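dumping this here so i dont lose it again. seq + smiles for pyridoxal-5'-phosphate
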Amino acid sequence: MTEQNLPYGDLAPDTLVVATGRPPREHDAPVNAPIVLSSTFHETRTPEAGDRIYARGSNPTWDPFEEALGLLEGAGLPALVFGSGLGAAAAALSLVPTGGVVVMPRHGYAGSLSLAADLEAQGRFELHLVDIADTESVLSQLEALAARADAGSLMLWLESPTNPMLEVAEPATLTKAAHAVGALVVADNTFNTPIVHRPLDDGVDVVLHSVTKWLAGHSDVVLGALVTNDPKLRERLLSHRTLHGAIAGPFEVWLALRGLRTLALRMGRSQENAATLAHRLAGHPAVRRVRYPGLPTDPGHERAAAQFNGFGGIISIELDDVATADALVAAVRLWLPATSLGGVESLIERRRRQPAEPATVPEELVRLSVGIENVDDLWADLDRALRGTRAS
Ligand SMILES: *Cc1c(COP(=O)(O)O)cnc(C)c1O
């Protein structure tokens, strides 16, 4: 699809998002990949392995996005795009043999936790929740589980920072220990994106993305992706995608690649805005606690500074009580009261409004997904709304 002679390995991420996933440099060829709307492909001879054949298995519009994301995550293989992040999560969880054990962060993404709990209820595997930031405790629990589980039947699921508690784990240490007991390691990299952190560098086996969020970045598509360096794992994940049919529409993937072109710029601006807002919020009389790994006082700060290229665009704040938190969300005019994250527009949500949110997430916690607007406008709106909660 693209020019193999470009030394992609030497290019920085902010170049890769622009340079990769383009058609070959031929006279009069388009510079952007076209959207291919076709459910089937000409078969003028007996099909061979790797042929497109039918669009549940393969679509030319997926290729440039999969190539770009694979390179961005530092994989030697193209990513696999799915119809949603949870579709990708279901494929990743299918790698656990029946009767196995899945270890997940207790404050992981609520949808992944609900999916894993549902599979546990069906008898597929046992779900074991941990405090992912407590490395010692996760290590001893992994050892205990390995002592009673069959070799190769364990999966460690990483999310760091967690959603919405923003706890920071030590993925390289955890991955090493998990591999030592034969566990497979999946890392949900939705919050960080490869601009901030590349889990494959920690030795993680499979990286998961809700492409819906930062990668596509405009809150206009629902998509997911998996990335791995292991050809056998990729084959199994591809087979799951084809057989279970959690495939992406060509237009959505085309939009995601278009969004990916500005990922580095958007992440940069969101992170800058988030850092400024987190510092201002930390000094606000109406805010009881700010969770943001970029704050030097944050429990995850040292780990995040050591591992990450930035501190992300999500801030969680805790207000005095639920009524105050709801009043804040109701009072903002620029921030959009909506779930989801990672778009160009700033979103605000009291997470426990969602019934699936873990009960250990404080009721009065409000998650801010910081967009790319002018930071002083964002602050003025928040500050006015926060003061209003005090006045009433
Ligand atoms: C949104 C999200 C998902 C699920 O992705 P969808 O595209 O909504 O299916 C998974 N993990 C994290 C961290 C998310 O934020």
